[in-house]
Amino acid sequence: MRDAQVTESGARIRWIELPGSEPSRVYLHGLGASSGPYFTASAVHPELAGHRSLLLDLLGFGISDRPTDFGYTLEEHADAVAAALDEAGVEAAEVIAHSMGGAVAIVLAARHPRLVAKLVLVDANLDPQPAARTAKAGSSGIASYSEQEFLAGGWKQVRDRVGPHWWSTMRLAGREALHRSAVHLAAGSTPTMRELLLELPIPRTYLRPAADPALPGAERLAAHGVSVVSIPDCGHNIMLDNPQAFARATAYALRGAH
Questions:
Q1: What single string gives the DSSP state of each residue in 12-61?
Q2: Which end of the chain is more exposed for a tag (fewer CB within 10 A), N or C?
Q3: What does the mean pLDDT of the chain come to?
Q4: What is the CATH number of the domain that holds 10?
Q5: Cβ atoms 60, 72 nearer than 8 A
Q6: Which residue range(s) make up the domain with 219?
Q7: Could you give the number of structural domains in the chain?
């Protein structure tokens, strides 16, 4: 395990690092998750193994620190990741990012372009989502609580909705971190993650479950050079539900074969 201080108050991001060749690959998890449980099998899969790989936990989640004096906006998350990558000596990385991690990765690539050479988004958030208490789980449901409500007991209701699999990593998150990250993810970035993605001058691939409804704006994404790839037999956690197809599609994308 490695770590880097990423805030002036001393908070540290931590990551699991697998040795290998350059370019480095950086894996970023989604809301309430952790890169180790979600991406280790992918990083060592025969289709993807052999590269230096950083399975990084965003500030507030997993094995990273959980400061309460941090805002947890997408921009702050991206800047914290950038500080960790600088400490690790990473440049021009291939970034594979799931869900909220994908939103952070888009902002990272826009704000720190020297750090990201290729981007594989795994069912990532591209657009703002209105907060909705009726949402079963996810950022919009968490964001429907005020921070005071969430800390006072709303987190227990979220725990009961998300189920034991997601809760196994969500319980590691700082509660302020979880709530603030959800609020800012639901609000999105300015410009939106989608608009930032369209303008990035790097190879970009978006992996999505084949069973989902049509991806909004897919034609415009394609027109701007974003390769949209549907993966069969999976839900939102593509890398866990269909690891073989995920590894194959990710490797294909990173080879630049579109």
A1: EEEEEEE--EEEEEEEE--TT--HHHHHHHHHTSTTTTTEEEEEEPPTTS
A2: N
A3: 95
A4: 3.40.50.1820
A5: yes
A6: 2-127+191-254
A7: 1
